[in-house]
Amino acid sequence: MKPNLAWWPVALSRELQRQPLGCTLQGVPLVIFRDAEGVPAALPDRCPHRFAPLSAGRVRDGQIECPYHGWRLDAQGRCAHLPGQQQQRCSQALLQPLHSCEAQGLVWVSLAPERPTIAPVAPAEQRQALDTFWIQSQVRCSLQDAAENFLDGFHTHFVHAGWIRHDRKRQHIRTWVHRLEDGVEAQYSEEGTQSGLISRLFEGERGVSMGRFRLPGLAEIEYRDRQGRLNLLVSAWLTPAADGHLRLFARIATARHRAPAWLKRSLLQPLFQVILRQDRQILEKLSANQQRFADVPAPWRRDTPQDSPQDLLGPWIRQLLEHGELRDFQERHDAFWL
């Protein structure tokens, strides 16, 4: 299946309660709500009567009620209640419903004509008990640029100087880039103790770390200690919204131990907000600069990015998003100063 027709997260499950939510998926304005059984439903966010936004209405008896004339539509897009009429229900769908489901603490929607048979992409499975919390954000850039930025270690010395790494305190590390069933992963070894503030506060000596991208839009960073125990797993689902914007749903997971979950969240969340803000700033500068050069003549404009040996995942992410698969892939073993 093409990535754009897969399952995409549009909201946190906990956000979708008694009231409808408006969202946009790949340029399509949607309203999501829970039906009478509590199952998420998704419809175009436009009443068929006079095109009022359904997301501005309310949910009654598991149906979405238009705020303008009170037309009520069920999860299949049929008019279930028409105020002032004796005939209360019509069998014909007035709106085309979208496939929706709930998994991993998220509400998912697909624009595919048929319901996707592949389950929504899940975070890497862990044997340890975890404490988790969520961070949401929005950024104006491409999915490719956001995913590569999230997984790229070589920008952290400059964009996140002191927070994650220091340029003057690089370490000699080994990397292994290999294929996944639905994506690609880079594994980093021999990293040792990290120089950045976040790692020094919350991590001892690092044994191995992984950065992976999985279709259609999950980017993950995983840190483990010398004994193979999880220190941190950040799973970021990236959803194309509208006008070049992406929605970010990031789940931060840490191993459950003596420190209570609320304490870890209160310490980690502000730090991750700083990192997200720094990444958002550079990504939006990158996106704006690409737009500046959109109409510049060819001699002064380069459309294809110049990859380097340090770009471990970027070229493969580009290929996965373009073709839905890896082509001519070869595993790589390298050594760098990171």
UniProtKB/TrEMBL annotation:
It holds the Pfam family VanA_C. Residues 7-109 form the Rieske domain. One of its GO terms (molecular function) is metal ion binding. Transmembrane segments: none annotated. SUPFAM superfamilies: Bet v1-like (SSF55961), ISP domain (SSF50022). The keyword Amino-acid biosynthesis does not apply. InterPro entries: Cholesterol_7-desaturase (IPR050584), Rieske_2Fe-2S (IPR017941), Rieske_2Fe-2S_sf (IPR036922), VanA_C_cat (IPR044043). Keywords: 2Fe-2S, Dioxygenase, Iron, Iron-sulfur, Metal-binding, Oxidoreductase. This is Aromatic ring-hydroxylating dioxygenase subunit alpha.
